[in-house]
Amino acid sequence: MSAFGERYGPWAIVAGASEGLGEAFARGLAEAGLNLVLVARRAALLAELAAELGTKHRVEVRPIALDLGSPESSSRLGSETRELDVGLLVYNAAFAPSGDFLAMAPEAHRAVLGVNCYTPALLCHELGRRMVARGRGGIVLMSSLAGLYGSPGISHYAATKAYNLILAEGLWAELGPRGVDVLACCAGATLTPGYRSNPAPPRLLAPPVMQPAEVVREALDALGRRPCVVPGRWNRIASFLLRLFPRRRAVLMLGGSTARLGAGG
Question: Which end of the chain is less congested by CB atoms within 10 angstroms, N or C?
């Protein structure tokens, strides 16, 4: 097993693994020789991916169909993986409805909090304790460039991505001395199925859209080196330039795109 596998293996959990970035994480970790627990709602897609990765990379892959917005999802996943020596958690699952904040039903807001905040926090608690007990491990929480500033049209989603960023940075300092590496990955526009179905409106000097495998490669390379990574050189430049503006101005600049996204185009 590679040095990466020795540090973060033998088992990894990828939440939100059925497509997009989650699928790319699963492929990258299987290639590194880790056994996988793949979690998402769509059982058929998980089973297909599990069979492919298990055959191709000769690793054990267990699909678990689970609604990560359910209050019981973290305890169920914890109990179903109790006998496994889990060394890595990648939490990629997210619920991202767009539109006017006040027009959304309360149920949608509860789902955003459940999938994006409540479940990852409890999984970090459950699996973090197990990793500290074994003396090594890693946690990757997927944040977003949208979490760096207020984003009209996706206000609640952006707020939860800020939560993921701050939680990861705090845990990086808390758990690092005890052998557990924690990373927030602030991804920009990525060519996932969700992006294809609702692409961001074109903007002058907007960073290029990244491939999921590129994001995964930079995230896994940054794990254990720093508390946060912004994949993509142009995304890093854009995030730096935004910091040069007053925050009010930066929010309004970003809002020109995200508000149109929330309005449906």
Answer: C
Phi, psi of 227 (to 5 degrees): -80, -20
Residue 171 pLDDT exceeds 60: yes
Of 165 and 247, which is predicted with more confidence?
165
Give me the DSSP letters along 82-126: TTS-EEEEEE-------S-TTTS-HHHHHHHHIIIIIHHHHHHHH
Confirm or reject CATH 3.40.50.720 for domain 3-262, answering yes or no: yes
Q: 12: exposed, middle or buried (C-beta count within 10 Å: 0-12, 13-18, 19+)?
A: buried
- Does residue 36 carry a pLDDT above 50? yes
Q: Would you name the residues annotated as active-site residues?
A: 157, 161
Q: Which of 170, 15, 147, 26 is nearest to 94 (CA)?
A: 15
What are the φ and ψ backbone dihedral angles of 33, each rounded to 5 degrees? Answer: 95, 10
Q: Token pair of 194, please?
A: 């969700």
